[in-house]
Amino acid sequence: MTEYFIGPDNKPRCQWCGGAPNFLDYHDNEWGFPVDDDQRLFEKLCLESFQSGLSWRTILDKRDNFRAAFDHFDFNKMAKYTDKHVERLLSNAGIVRHRGKIEAVINNAQRAQELIEEEGSLATFFWRHEPDPAEIPEPQSLSQSPTSALISKTLKKKGWKFVGPTTVYSFLQAMGMINDHVEGCVIREKVDAARKKFKRPI
């Protein structure tokens, strides 16, 4: 039997969104809704990389600080970061001060530029991997999938870092490639509707 969080409107939602005050808004208005903007996609993937080994609450609480620190995840600006930027970021108490992750997302900004040169956009690359709905299992039953493993392997071959299959799967959930809201969650229908209207990038 699925357990739900009952929101302030007395409607059921995914149980996890009751875990912290700012989860509800994120769950209701962002998580699972399809995204095709390259900068937003890059931000989501970077934040999932920072989340590795930590709680999502930690990352969401610090998201505004991350945005300010990383030029709102403008990968064209981040690609030019130097060692001085790294040291500045390591002294910023408002973000996760992990040298490996900081250096990884700067590296990934450079790799993002290369991927756009190859594919036209990040959105085109990621959405090309959208799985057949018939292959998607019960919501929130996996931590990785064949699709996330394939994307992870492809990105790693292209030089990306901190993009393992579990990190990529969390990214796919967040950017709407799969609708992982549980059956009965009031937002699941809204995400389904958004996905039906969404024009996949070519």
Automatic annotation (TrEMBL):
Binding positions for Zn(2+) per the UniProt entry: C14, H27, H181, C185
Keyword Zinc appears in the UniProt entry: yes
InterPro entries: Adenine_glyco, DNA-3mA_glycosylase, DNA_glycosylase
Gene Ontology terms for molecular function: DNA-3-methyladenine glycosylase activity; metal ion binding
A GO biological process held by the record: base-excision repair
Gene3D superfamilies: Hypothetical protein, domain 2 (1.10.340.30)
Keyword hit for Transmembrane helix: no
Keywords: Metal-binding, Zinc
Name of the protein described by the UniProt record: DNA-3-methyladenine glycosylase I
